[in-house]
Amino acid sequence: METKLLITPEQVVELAFGCGCDKHLVVADIGEATIVAAESKFVVPVFGADMVEQMRSGSYAELVDCYLRPALALYVKYLVLPTLAVKVGAAGVVSYTGEGFEPSDEQAVKHLLRRTKADADALIDRAVAVVEAAPAGAYPLYHAGHNIRHRVNISSGIVL
Question: Is the pLDDT reported for residue 124 higher than 80?
């Protein structure tokens, strides 16, 4: 049985990577496991497994299309960036260096990861705000008390 996902690799590239990359190469590096991991780690703890399953089935399409999918694309990007920096092949684990490119230093990659995660967090918070501002009963499977973003705050790598 095929797993229904909230986003496809093509949508991730479109929403999170912009036009400055080789889209075919990036799509090939975004596997179903990475999307499942992003959904499990960043979306399910916010909206709950039941609501996410309903989203996968087509419910709440406007919420998914307008608010959740852009956030999820950035979470997938956040998870896949380290993989894009290195490749595994016959020569072992190697860094990618193409013509006209120079590898980024470790600090630049860390900054990009932090920025990507911060943007994704802001977008998921916007999706939560839309759900919580909706009339009672519009999202019956959502429970604000179960939303991990209401219970955990991470600032500068410190859990508060």
Answer: yes
Measured CA to CA, the distance from residue 111 to residue 67 in angstroms comes to: 24
Helix, strand counts (H, E) of the chain: 8, 4
The pLDDT value recorded for residue 21 is 66
Helix segments in the chain, DSSP class H: 9-12, 23-29, 32-38, 44-47, 49-56, 61-63, 69-85, 106-133
Using CA atoms, how far apart are residues 67 and 105, in angstroms rounded to an integer? 33
Neighbours of 88 (CB within 10 A): 9
**Amino acid residing at 55:** M
CA-wise closest residue to 21 among 151, 112, 111, 119: 112
- For residues 44, 48, 51, 55, the Cα torsion angle rounded to the nearest 10 degrees is -10
Question: Among all chains, which residue has been given the structure tokens 């490119």?
Answer: 101
